[in-house]
Design brief:
Blueprint (H helix, E strand, L loop, with lengths): L29 H16 L1 E7 L3 E3 L8 E6 L3 H13 L21 H25 L20 H17 L3 H13 L19
Parallel strand pairs: 1-3
Antiparallel strand pairs: 2-3
Length: 207
């Protein structure tokens, strides 16, 4: 989840038509994720998934508004899965805050800032990995810090942390909304994947 630095005031993103750099296979259309998400969560959790954003953002319903809105970048399938993972983890209090109340440091983080970033990202990326498997979609690990001082940070420690989180969830069970969405994805994309069959091996990670 990459977002620009702000002055502390979180505001809704500049929404514009989808502008993916390259087409994706029709099977991995983000519109399918929007429909599955709505089927799972629009009625009970009053939340919808919307693409076309310049940057991902979660906007809780304001005064007089019925639905919370979870925006993902452009029409990117992976961005949608990642934002859904964050939403599935966020507790009730955080779901009442713009962007779940998080502060996102920009690319170019130093060692301390990167460690804080990875501490927040391990759980959602592990969950995104599971969602990707349910879709039959290739997942890539991201430490999202190309401008790090001294060059790209070492991805291996974060990869191991992600695997640990994934294995813990496979044993303990997924959060309620994550389990609902995983099952719905497995049906929608025809993989039939069950939680007990989720891959948590190092070989299963693409990047």
């Amino acid at each position: 989840m990459s977002r620009p630095a702000t002055n502390g005031a979180l505001t809704a993103p500049d929404i514009k038509p989808g502008d993916a750099l390259a087409p994706v296979p029709e099977i991995f259309s983000s519109a399918r994720l929007e429909r599955v998400f709505a089927d799972c969560f629009a009625a009970r959790w009053r939340t919808v998934l919307l693409g076309g954003a310049a940057e991902p953002f979660y906007q809780p319903a304001g005064h007089g508004e019925e639905l919370h809105r979870l925006y993902y970048r452009s029409d990117y399938f992976a961005s949608a899965l990642h934002e859904i993972a964050h939403w599935c983890i966020a507790g009730e209090r955080r779901r009442l805050l713009p962007d779940f109340g998080y502060w996102y440091a920009p690319d170019g983080r130093n060692t301390v800032a990167q460690a804080a970033f990875e501490a927040v990202e391990a759980k959602p990326q592990a969950l995104e990995w599971f969602f990707s498997q349910a879709c039959g979609y290739r997942f890539f690990v991201s430490i999202d810090n190309l401008g790090a001082p001294g060059g790209m940070a070492d991805c291996e420690p974060f990869r191991q942390r992600l695997i640990e989180e994934a294995r813990a969830w496979r044993v303990q069970g997924l959060p309620q909304r994550a389990a609902i969405f995983l099952q719905a994805l497995a049906v929608e994309f025809g993989t039939g994947l069950q939680a007990a069959k989720l891959d948590t091996s190092l070989a299963g990670l693409a990047g």
